[in-house]
From TrEMBL:
Any GO MF annotation of the entry: ATP binding
InterPro entries the UniProt entry points to: Ie/If_SH3, Kinesin_motor_dom_sf, Myosin_head_motor_dom-like, Myosin_TH1, MYSc_Myo1, P-loop_NTPase, SH3-like_dom_sf, SH3_domain
Gene: MYO1F
GO cellular component: cytoplasm; microvillus; myosin complex; plasma membrane
The protein, known as: Osteoclast-stimulating factor 1
Amino acid sequence: MPTRLSKALVSTTNTNIAKYHWQSQNVKQSGVDDMVLLSKITEDAIVDNLKKRYMDDYIFTYIGPVLISVNPFKQMPYFTDREIELYQGAAQYENPPHIYALTDNMYRNMMIDGENQCVIISGESGAGKTVAAKYIMGYISKVSGGGSKVQHVKEIILQSNPLLEAFGNAKTVRNNNSSRFGKYFEIQFSRGGEPDGGKISNFLLEKSRVVSQNENERNFHIYYQVREGASAQQREALGIMTPDYYYYLNQSGTYKVDGTNDSKDFQETMEAMQVIGIPGDIQTQVLQIVAGILHLGNISFIEAGNYGQVESTDLLAFPAYLLGIDPNRLQDKLTSRKMDSKWGGKSESINVTLNQEQANYTRDALAKALYARLFDYLVESINKAIQKPYEEFSIGVLDIYGFEIFQRNGFEQFCINFVNEKLQQIFIELTLKAEQEEYVQEGIKWTPIEYFNNKIVCDLIENKLNPPGIMSVLDDVCATMHAKGEGADGTLLQKLQAAVGTHEHFNSWNSGFVIHHYAGKVSYDINGFCERNRDVLFPDLIELMQSSEFNFIRSLFPENLNTDKKGRPTTASSKIKKQANDLVNTLMKCTPHYIRCIKPNETKRPKDWEESRARHQVEYLGLRENIRVRRAGFAYRRLFSKFLMRYAILTAETWPCWRGPEQQGVLHLLRSVNMDNDQYQMGRTKVFVKNPESLFLLEEMRERKFDTFARIIQKAWRKFIARKKYEQMREEASDILYNSKERRKNSINRNFVGDYLGLEQRPELRQFLAKRERVDFADSVNKFDRRFKSIKRDLILTPKGIYLIGREKVKKGPEKGQIKEVLKRKMEFGGISSVSLSTRQDDFFILHEAQYDSLLESNFKTEFLSLLSKRYEEVTKRKLTISFGSSCFRLEFRVKKEGWGGGGTRIVVFQKGPGDVAQLKPGGKTLSVTIGDGLPKSSSSLYRRTAALLLKHTLRSLSSAHQNGGAKFPRGPHNPQADITYSSPQKQDMFKKDIKKERKRPPPAPKPQPRPQGPRCRALYQYVGQDTDEISFEANDVLDLVKEDPSGWWTGRIGGKEGLFPGNYVEKI
């Protein structure tokens, strides 16, 4: 299909085209859109450019294909359906930087190249990564098609966000909606590009938040949602009290978040569970587990003779009730533990009573395990609802916790920052290191650019041996731990000092150690490292939960406790290391795209720019090096075979396949589009194109080729469909006026064109319509005001309503004195009450609307009324009232109220007179229209009748030819008039002449005589003839004008063929 871009280029001959381009629609230029174009490549210049754009509310900026996004801390206005339409199918340079452009590029690359795509969204906590992921999923959902099943998948994909945010996000000191887990969401697509499946992988839920939070932070959102949003009956059943009652919520003293409506969010969470397909009884048990954890946290312990015992046994009953377990067993398992003892080759189980500290630890371990397993169940439920058994294409969206530096950084921050370090390594590997190495391998001239490679930091953390990394040392210490205590953490610090103490990115201090991350130095408090890394859930607690009366809770603990345990238990650090490396492997198999999110301040306020904070992020994200590599390197590289496959259509020699060496085929293509030699280099296996503009040139040429072929196919198809459609429309339109209104000559059998203004090439008129808004009818009409003064208006009918467009002189501003198009009126279908016409052959009609009426005159009123009736019925579900003037030929209409005067009414009187052209005589509040008699009211289309006669005659001729071996013609003239009650003078007579011509043997062709030069006209737009008696022409063709007709259908001659065409498609010359 013709694209927006090709239309724009075709129209560049119009001198006024620039004023309709997006860049000229009052878009303020702020800095540079793509920082590759910066005059100076320094941190100062980058920060200054980002600040300028941020202050002007432009949050997106490019570095080549990498998108930089600055958190605005407010809702921006450019995420509507209009922007989705604007960016769909557009090249990157066509529109300002936007996350929709990157998403559309991913989606199209997946469809064109048949390769999986992924987007890596990185940045520190609070930089806007989760919101970016939501916009990506929302855009894909909007632009991809699909039936009811696909729509259901889309709904689940979108609904998974509020559900996982409720259970996985929390307020931290740096972010009110911080993701406390990592998520890689793969949206799976069919071959047709419809999202028909998906899969979520989740990483390292911050379980410790369930039992403790820092000051000014909150637990996971779901706890506060239940408190604020649950019904009174639900709260009573769950024993929900105020948040300050619960130990697991009151440690931070923070319960509310600005801009967060916990009650509304709770309804969205429950709705999401419903959409995903979680049954109602399971939803109830999910809430019971959430509430049960809160009540569990209120069980406290006191020290009694070195043993821990429950301080208030009354507090055991409610959590036991909610979790479906026996309160006595709960008390027993919280204060004692079964241990296996081996002696002399024999093993026996003994019960060990716990002290107060161990009892607290056991309670918290149970709470964390319940919550983590519940979260895994929710993720699995989403996957079961949308995962398909086989994979075709996919787009992966990585939304993972940002880099974190707090006052106190513990084991969780260590794991989070390790994953971010791995993601930074991918970025370096693919955008800085691999790119430069590729130039060397391919033999491209290249001057290396220095950059910091953080692989040294990743190795410091995850190395197994020589020297062992921090995680290996941590696992060794945990393997020798027997009980909880500070001793293990102290041992860890000593062993780390011995193993990596001399590493340039490691330092130790009295309470922990420091790592020099890519984002800066982070001090980690060693306290609790070993215990949190062990992440052990004792068999006693698993056994306890397996005794629950609820099947759902039992299903969360599927372990078989009777099997022998061999080898080391899996630690938290080994899990996250495996997950991080699996994630890296997954991402490396996809074509990666990058969004680098920047947090401009710590106040979370819009338009607040902290220079030092922004500069620090620009430095550690490596944006300067990224720009330098992008600027010095090549924007695009492709294997010769893939390049040939994509652009083969550009030349006859390469399409459908190139016969010869691939490299020569690529060179042939590049020369065919006249690309400068300095814009590309040929490698050993790939072609490298330097500037994006050169790539856009190739894409544009390819688009034009497809556009041309699409037009040829469309032309043939439309011609076929149009004939069928317009035959039907003509009959329907004729029925509207049948027996009610006299008809004009030539109006009954004429073809319907619909667009008589050529809107495809009239951007000054299309600007008032929505993008891709279909045009049913467009014509230049006469509109009469209260004084019956005739004014030209462009009348456009679309599925959304009726537009009346006029012209006015600009009175001020830079365009003062210019004539510009103005939308004078838009009428919604619901506001139109009826249409009035006279019974004579005139072209007047009145649109009656709620506010005031419009008196219009159009040659193509029948076609307009036919299309209006259809659209009106579709929208309002009722038929349009069309009334015809009374016997005294009088119509009345209301005029617009102006100033202090009332609106009032005006009258149009129709009188009989000579001629087919209406004579107008205004007088006061009455307009007299005098016009001669037209064709009878009972006139109808003769198309079907004549077509049947022609078919009958043709069959007779074919039959004679078959019998006698030659064509036979009847001796007596056959008169079709005898079979017809009434005939239309012009177009029908031409039809009959064609039949008569067939009956006589044609004489020898006479010698061509020089024809005298008559009136001529030039085509303004392309016209494709819809019938045998019409001619076709291209824009700018010159035609001989044979005859003008008031009906609007003129007769002309081109290329030796004479026929009809719409008069408003040409201009006289």
